[in-house]
Amino acid sequence: MRIGELSRRTGVPVPTIKYYVREGLLPPGELTSPNQASYGESHERRLRLIRALLDVGGMKVAEIADVLTAIDDRDRPLHKVLGAAADRLGADHDDQADDADTDGASRTARAVVADLVTRRGWRTHESNPAAADLTKALAAMDRLGHSAFTDVLDDYADAAEQVARADLAYVDREVAVEDMVEAVVIGTVLGEAVFNALRRLAHVDASAKRYGTQGQPGTPG
Amino acid sequence: MRIGELSRRTGVPVPTIKYYVREGLLPPGELTSPNQASYGESHERRLRLIRALLDVGGMKVAEIADVLTAIDDRDRPLHKVLGAAADRLGADHDDQADDADTDGASRTARAVVADLVTRRGWRTHESNPAAADLTKALAAMDRLGHSAFTDVLDDYADAAEQVARADLAYVDREVAVEDMVEAVVIGTVLGEAVFNALRRLAHVDASAKRYGTQGQPGTPG
DNA sequence: GCTATCTGATAGTGCCACTATCTATGATGG
DNA sequence: CCATCATAGATAGTGGCACTATCAGATAGC
Fold this sequence. Notes:
mainly alpha, MerR_fam (chains A, B), MerR-type_HTH_dom (chains A, B), DNA-bd_dom_put_sf (chains A, B), DNA-binding (chains A, B), MerR family transcriptional regulator (chains A, B)
């Protein structure tokens, strides 16, 4: 198909598709003449993936480019890509926490994280960005006077393990080997959005049941 | 204290503090003379909250302004604020899903969500933004060929309920009534970041245990 | 008095995800 | 074969966002 049809099918404007190609998110179409290119199913599928990671996953274009490069790299063994891909899918990584990294809250949080990982027997490296994110979040909690939140960390970790098991089981059960890497990326990123939404629904329900009311239906506007 | 000390204590630049005041995130200091204002403990605490919601929670300045206004509104009954506050803390709400909202994937997703809410007996209104987010995420899954992901939704929901229960228990146990609203906001937003990080750690661990390896330590850079 | 700091205001910056416009070329149809 | 349309590729511009720079005028504290 040509770029116009690709655009129509996916709802992505033609200039945006060209932009994605420029940024390396989408391979260029196969040139059939100097100014004609044809796009296939794989382009359509990739485009939908890009929009999902952008719109639902909230990832940045540059991050998506990295992840897609990893997905397309079929040289490295599957399990290594799984690990690397899962590693890269963090929040915004600034790496600018140089001075804030040495205050009391950060040191406490780091200890809490190290302790948790040990207690859980988690096979994860300290350099995993997720560990840094966790430290950052717990340090912020601490600074806001909620250091006691660490008491519920194990409840959170139980739930996280349950979700991770469900993800792995899904991938094992439903996904062909050739699509596994992509499925893990989708599951990690979109699964996060799914869980966050479920958590907020459960939150409203739990507080409704406790306080005997239900969430405001009206968003006035 | 004056604005300079507030800046030094929190690490937030003076012009940025002024910007937050302009945007309504932070109440202005109490004027002691036409060009001198004094800031108190509450300003420092509020400023830390703002930075946490921004840096860790990834919220936008305008969203934070809304939430803080709700926190400061002491007129409405506590449980209503809890519901409203929890409602507002979603992802980026675009409301522009008008045409994409009527395709097959979206309709399927909406049915799945309605079914889930009924099955769970969740007391939540359909207009809850979280429900829309969930629908959006599931529709994206569907379009990517992962409609079977709905099979693990109940595992996710179990985990979400567990997390919600832990949150409520924490607030009940640790937080004074006057700080409850703020604590719920913190718990919802920062707790999300905490859980997402834990989920990624658990993910790496689970795949490490299954595939007998551990995540790449090296992020080459 | 003198200098550092402050308030309040306006304008500018850098990043990001597009989006508009242009040229030259080829596709398509009567 | 010629008018019209779509396309590739390139460059520049847009709008949103979170700041950040600069300034004028006033005050603090020595």
